[in-house]
Design a protein that fits this description.
By secondary structure, the chain is of the alpha/beta class. It has two domains: about 220 residues, Glycerol-3-phosphate (1)-acyltransferase; about 170 residues, no CATH class. It has a seven-stranded mixed beta sheet. Strands 8-9 form a two-stranded antiparallel ribbon. The longest helix has 18 residues.
């Protein structure tokens, strides 16, 4: 007997909600979901967990934006039923194709499901709303903002760049006596003519409405900012948490265009003071000593001495200046930056300084790596010796990836 697929949606959504309830999480819904005619696009935030997938059941299987490579599993097959908009990560034209597909569906007279978008593009800790990507706002059609809250005594759901993995979070959630998720449909947002012409303005204004409803601030961080910060922290880049602020200040000072820092790093700091005050800091960078250079100095300053390790600053600047170069290129300059003798012969303590700042190693692993490279126990190693060793080790494969996006497999330990 033939059963129309649309008739199965209520049943699938009911089973989905019951599966959450069986795991101890009750889903409550406030407000009214608008029809596709009223709002072809649902804008959902904040996005903080894989458990946010419950929104699919709460919205009667709306079409989600999903990476194609995420579909090769059981959950992926279920999501396939929502007629998702696929994103092909390996396709350089994927972003434009996705926007085109969203526009076609949102403006089509055919009976497509509503398109469901998480405009932040990444998971956050729900303390603020980061920059909304404008893709879902290009059609210029009304959207319905939808908020997600997890008002639980213990946070066992937040799944971000740092912190527990998915399986641990799922286990922690399942061990709670009771958890809840609140989904609220806010009034439909109708764009002005100005917003229709400017998707970024439209996205900002919808974000402001949602932040006000949630009672949290907005923060102009993007997915790429979060990814860059996570990468910098993973490698141990100095002042990694302030990468975005450093990038903005360098742009305001014109350093992002001059490439002066890369030249200074390539020369090394032999016969030059490493610890500099604020006036010397600005002078070496060839910029005026003003509020911007002062703020940049303050990020790197040692509060005890009031000075900045200029090598640390240059390493961070190289990381920002050469985002697509293999990390081995940055590493070669790092060897010169931290080699105080200028001989190219790096001792164990110097290698520790290098490895904890650009290889993502803890002190113990840095010492172990040094011993493995220095097999004849000379007491020093060179950059070429380390690279020869690293090429044969899977844990250092990320050094040779040209787009600098490979994640190191080593993990930092507490020191």
């Amino acid at each position: 007997m033939f059963v129309h697929v649309e008739s199965l949606k209520p049943l699938i959504c009911f089973i989905g909600k019951m599966s959450y309830l069986a795991g101890g999480m009750a889903i409550s819904v406030r407000g009214r979901q608008a029809s596709r005619k009223e709002a072809p696009i649902l804008v959902v935030a904040p996005h903080s967990s894989f458990l946010d997938s419950c929104i699919v059941y709460a919205t009667m299987m709306s079409s989600v934006i999903v990476r194609k490579e995420s579909m090769d599993n059981y959950v992926g097959k279920l999501i396939n039923y929502t007629q998702p908009v696929y994103v092909w990560r390996d396709d350089p034209n994927s972003r434009q194709n996705t926007i085109k597909e969203i526009i076609e569906r949102a403006t089509s007279k055919e009976d497509w499901p509503q398109v469901l978008i998480f405009p932040e593009g990444t998971c956050t800790n729900r303390s603020c709303l980061i920059t909304f990507k404008p893709g879902g706002f290009y059609p210029g059609v009304p959207v319905q903002p939808v908020t997600i809250r997890y008002p639980n005594a213990k946070d066992t759901v937040t799944w971000t760049w740092e912190g527990p993995g998915a399986l641990k979070l799922l286990w922690l959630t399942l061990t709670q006596v009771h958890s809840s998720c609140e989904i609220e449909f806010l009034p439909v947002y109708y764009p002005s003519e100005e917003e229709k012409k400017d998707p970024k303005l439209y996205a900002r204004n919808v974000r402001d409405v949602m932040a006000k409803a949630l009672g949290i601030p907005v923060l102009d961080y993007t997915y790429d900012d979060c990814r860059l910060i996570a990468r910098a922290k993973q490698l141990g880049i100095p002042c990694a948490a302030y990468i975005r602020d450093i990038s903005e200040l360098r742009a305001q000072l014109g350093l992002d265009r001059s490439h002066l820092e890369v030249h200074l790093a390539a020369e090394g700091l032999q016969n030059k003071k490493r610890m500099v005050n604020k006036e010397e800091f600005a002078k070496r960078l060839g910029v005026p000593y003003d509020i911007h250079s002062q703020r940049l100095f303050d990020i790197f300053v040692n509060p005890t001495t009031g000075l900045v390790n200029f090598a640390d600053y240059l390493l961070c600047a190289m990381f920002l200046s050469l985002p697509h170069d293999p990390l081995s290129h940055i590493l070669s300059c790092t060897f010169r930056l931290y080699d105080e003798t200028g001989s190219g012969l790096v001792k164990c303590n110097t290698f520790e300084a290098i490895a904890t700042r650009v290889l993502g190693l803890c002190q113990e692993d840095a010492q172990s790596t040094f011993r493995q490279v220095d097999l004849d126990e000379k007491g020093y190693i060179t950059y070429d010796e380390f690279i020869k060793y690293a090429k044969d080790k899977n844990e250092f494969a990320f050094l040779f990836v040209s787009d600098n996006s490979f994640k190191p497999k080593t993990k930092q330990k507490s020191q």
